[in-house]
Amino acid sequence: MTARMYYDADADPEALSKRPIAILGYGSQGHAHALNLRDSGHDVRVGLPETSGSRAAAEAEGLRVLTPDKACEEADVIMVLTPDTGQRALYDEAIAPHLHADKMLMFAHGFNIRYDLINPPVGVDVSMVAPKGPGHLVRSTFVNGQGVPCLFAVHQDATGLARERTLAYARGIGGTRAGVLETTFAEETETDLFGEQAVLCGGITSLVKAGFDTLTEAGYQPELAYFEVMHELKLIVDLMYQGGMSWMRYSVSETAEYGDYVSGPKVVDERTRATMRKLLSDIQDGSFAKRWIEENEAGRPNFVEYRDEEQHLPIERVGAELRSKMGWLDSKTAPGMDKVLNTPDREEAPV
């Protein structure tokens, strides 16, 4: 059965009329939600600690900036757009004291509700609007009269109005212009984590690293290896984004298409699929969430080590050098990479 998408006609903006909204956080998603809602005519304030470096940016946009505690006290709708790992403390300190009947607590990711890190009282609505795109795209498409597709879910409907209020919120940030799909907190969380780990982040980066290492270990130039397994990846992803796998295969050479059919299943074989099933199982039973929470509580020692090791990979050095010569490319450097690129290699890159 085809899933139903909800559009502007399905969402009544009046459901949030005269409902003060607090946006907690002003990062990628926070700035987009706050500005889009403001431009849609809603009463918005941003909740940020007094020490936050984002306060000036929000104020420069003409937004009211309060402490999280004060913003939650004023608001009828509270949207949490801070990192997953800090939401429980934020909830305890600033949100929970101001939750009462008729208020709605919202999230853009179901992690803390799905894994029982946050347990709102039964008298409040709890819902989610999760854009399927980064915040800068949520904002830029809105400004251009378009929108980014979203997921929405109602976890707790204490007022009987949670669903229509959630759809109104989705409309306020431009989501219903592109279409929003109804889901649950559990489904959104589990599929999102799986997609990140198995394909979008973990799977892709591991595949790229393995391809680069295979070519350089066989004696091919690192620069050539980078172009073949990293640089051209954007071309392939863009084609799939535009028209699916069939459009990508139609757009590349028949040699590439044939290689796709006969060699892809050898790279992603039954062992890989079994690993994917295990990753999903760990997400579903909470094992991954438990490890990630414990990692944060311990000060992130493994996380920091992983990040440092990955930033020192030969493909990162080779790629940074090549991208610096591409004047047409808006090249980016991750925090910490400047120091890595200005220090000698730990080990010489393969030649």
**Strand line-up in the sheet with most strands:** 1-9-8-7-6-5-2-3-4
Order of helices and strands: EEHEHEHEHEHEHEHHEHHHHHHHHHH
Q: Percent of residues in beta strands? A: 5-15%
Helix percentage: 40-55%
What is the end-to-end distance? 53 Å
Low-confidence stretches are: 346-351
Strand count, sense and barrel status of the largest sheet are: 9 strands, mixed
Radius of gyration from the alpha-carbon trace, in angstroms: 23 Å
Shape: globular
- Assembly annotation: single chain
| Count of separate DSSP helical elements | 18
Mean pLDDT: 95
Number of strands: 9
Structural class, judged by helices and strands?
alpha/beta
From the structure above, extract its key features.
about 55% helix, globular, alpha/beta, nine-stranded mixed sheet
